[in-house]
Design brief:
- The relative contact order is 0.11.
- This protein is mostly helical.
- Helix content is 70%, strand content 3%.
- It is built from ten helices and two strands; from the N terminus they run ααααββαααααα.
Length: 230
């Protein structure tokens, strides 16, 4: 009887990668497979298996896994090693509280430097979101919309921290958008937010962003309560 193909090789394929490109290629392949659900939560991601698949040493594999762990896409479990992280945990509401702190500051820094091209880019993401029905693409566009408004913040470390949190939300939205009941209201929030940013109304934009994120936190709290039967 033929051996059943292992999930990593089935999902990622097998190819020889130049050593200097290995870390980036492996990170991106794994990230895409985790985000779109081909590698479900709990899947073991073994260094040696990846090294064999891509024809490289364990070093670039280890570096790629560290990056994905930093993005909350992988977690290290005792006696099992790296596994794909859960879609969302009980700390999700705390994550939104953190996002309020980080993103309002990024917006405060960014708005004075946003130009017409930045605003046009943000509005283009809204137009795409209004017409998009694929949950995977909605998650991606939502992340790009927010980052477009924060892009001119001077604190680059702040932006990196925000992108990590948005990556986590993007993954969750891909799977549970319909269950959470998010729809047109989200785009109304986005439209009001970009209008305020365009008019350089910093305080108003920050208030709108806080309300938008707090609404999402309440929605996720309700979703988690339903999932646990509370």
């Amino acid at each position: 009887m033929a051996e059943k193909p292992k999930l990593l090789s089935t999902v990622l394929g097998s190819e020889q990668v130049p050593p200097h490109l290995a870390r980036g290629v492996i990170e991106e392949r794994l990230r895409s497979a985790i985000l779109d659900g081909r590698l479900p939560p709990g899947t073991a991601v073994r260094q040696q298996e990846l090294a064999t698949l891509f024809g490289v040493s364990r070093m670039p594999v280890r570096e790629a896994l560290r990056q994905l762990e930093a993005q909350s896409l992988l977690q290290v479990v005792m006696h099992k090693g790296a596994v794909v992280a859960p879609l969302i945990g009980e700390d999700a509401v705390d994550t939104y509280a953190l996002r309020v702190l980080l993103e309002t500051e990024a917006l405060r820094q960014s708005i004075p430097s946003l130009d017409a091209d930045d605003i046009a880019q943000a509005r283009s993401y809204i137009r795409q979101l209004e017409n998009e029905t694929r949950h995977a693409e909605i998650g991606r566009l939502n992340r790009l919309f927010h980052m477009a408004l924060y892009s001119k913040a001077k604190n680059q470390k702040l932006l990196r921290m925000i992108e990590i949190e948005l990556n986590e939300e993007e993954r969750f939205l891909r799977f549970h958008l319909s269950s959470m009941g998010l729809g047109k209201l989200t785009q109304d929030d986005h439209i009001a937010l970009v209008d305020a940013a365009s008019d350089k109304l910093v305080d108003e934009a920050i208030k709108l962003l806080e309300e938008h994120l707090n609404h999402a936190a309440r929605t996720i709290r309700n979703y988690l309560d339903k999932q646990s039967g509370n």
